């Protein structure tokens, strides 16, 4: 558990609205996790999230259905996204996630309970899972 105060370094005086939303969301995630549910999800304009695909379906399902402090297996997420036989494709969707943390691919773990891979490294994934677990316990 970190004893450091949460601090977000501000950039230019006038940030575009989507960047302001991302900054507010990330500040809430790290400093006041209970408030993330009440914040609007920042607008995402990444091409991967615009076209109709299984990857997009998986990422939106993850964002919508797997809440703060929860974890889901690749297979469970495949079922939630509508294709119970696509656990490997879910792994591909996690690798292609253009907005980690906001679209919480760190919450997807192996069926065995092992944390599995993460683009930011296994230590970061475990830290994020631990952060969420500790914050959720504080709220309970």
TrEMBL record:
Report the source organism: Certhia brachydactyla
Q: Which NCBIfam families match?
A: ogt (TIGR00589)
The cofactors named for this UniProt entry are:
Zn(2+)
Q: Which InterPro entries match?
A: MethylDNA_cys_MeTrfase_AS, MethylDNA_cys_MeTrfase_DNA-bd, MethylDNA_cys_MeTrfase_DNAb, MGMT_N_sf, WH-like_DNA-bd_sf
Q: Which reaction does it catalyse?
A: a 6-O-methyl-2'-deoxyguanosine in DNA + L-cysteinyl-[protein] = S-methyl-L-cysteinyl-[protein] + a 2'-deoxyguanosine in DNA; a 4-O-methyl-thymidine in DNA + L-cysteinyl-[protein] = a thymidine in DNA + S-methyl-L-cysteinyl-[protein]
GO BP term, example? methylation
- List its EC numbers: 2.1.1.63
Q: Where in the cell is it found?
A: Nucleus
Family statement: Belongs to the MGMT family.
GO CC terms of this entry: nucleoplasm
Assigned keywords, A-Z: DNA damage, DNA repair, DNA-binding, Metal-binding, Methyltransferase, Nucleus, Phosphoprotein, Transferase, Zinc
One example of the protein's molecular function in GO is: metal ion binding
Protein's name in the database: Methylated-DNA--protein-cysteine methyltransferase
The enzyme class is transferase
Domain Methylated-DNA-[protein]-cysteine S-methyltransferase DNA binding as annotated: residue spans: 56-133
């Amino acid at each position: 558990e970190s004893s450091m105060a949460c601090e977000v370094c501000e950039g230019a005086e006038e940030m575009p609205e989507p960047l302001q939303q991302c900054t507010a969301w990330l500040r809430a995630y790290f400093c006041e996790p209970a408030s993330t549910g009440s914040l609007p999800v920042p607008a995402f304009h990444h091409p991967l999230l615009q076209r109709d695909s299984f990857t997009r379906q998986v990422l939106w399902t993850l964002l919508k259905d797997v809440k703060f402090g929860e974890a889901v297996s690749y297979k469970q997420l495949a079922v939630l996204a509508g294709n119970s036989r696509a656990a490997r494709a879910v792994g591909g969707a996690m690798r292609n996630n253009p907005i980690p943390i906001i679209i919480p691919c760190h919450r997807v773990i192996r069926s065995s309970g092992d944390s599995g891979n993460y683009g930011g490294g296994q230590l970061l994934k475990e830290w994020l899972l631990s952060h969420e677990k500790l914050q959720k316990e504080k709220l309970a």
